[in-house]
Input
Amino acid sequence: MMATASVVRGGNVFTPLERKSRSVVVFEALKEKILSGFWSPGEQLYTEAELVGAFRVGRSTVREALNLLKANNLVYTVPGMGTFVNDPSYAVKSPPALDPDNLQDVLSVMEFRVAYEPYCAALAAMRITDAEIEKLVSCVESQIVNVSSDKDPAGFAELDMNFHYLLSQATRNALFSHSFELIREHLLRQQVISASYTERRKRAMKYHQQIIKALQERDAKQAELVMSEHVKETQKAISALLDA
Output
């Protein structure tokens, strides 16, 4: 994949490359074929084995791409027969346009997090690697430094967001990391609001340390429990701060 460039006075301006997982690249390629009419509605999609060979990727990558197609209602599966193409008109429309400055939209994102993030943590506990845990530990260590200086709440908010994003990636499920991307801007805005209070930063940091402990012990139930407490408390705090 190459960056596109346009020539302007003074030199070239390059568009930064988008960072996409292999499963998302496969998903987007298949989506384009479906929407362009390459397959007719009701026609059987290529098999997993055929897609693995066509894209030269692993079977898990293809399965994640197919899951994204299903989530977007572009295909459906008939047990024992295969995956079939839906009518493109059934496709899930673009995500709702949420305004990070709108109170109700901020609260809507928090409601989503309460349902989404605990199970995300549970899956991560079962699938995370030691290297990924080290990244989370490093993130929390940076948060500790941030809290001790008490001068950069926006920096803490960015670290907080990265912590939760790393967890979504550790699920090995593209739907979780994709969902995180959908709320990324709103999550950062919430974290900035919350991080403006030193006590909130300290509490978030302690929750993160407890989550890491559960991940190190591969304790999915404990990871889910701690994350549930974390996001519910954050939801309550954000609601109170916004009301005030």
In short: Residues 21 and 174 are 8 Å apart (CA to CA). The longest strand covers residues 5-8. The beta strands are 5-8, 11-14, 75-78, 82-85. The radius of gyration is 21 Å.
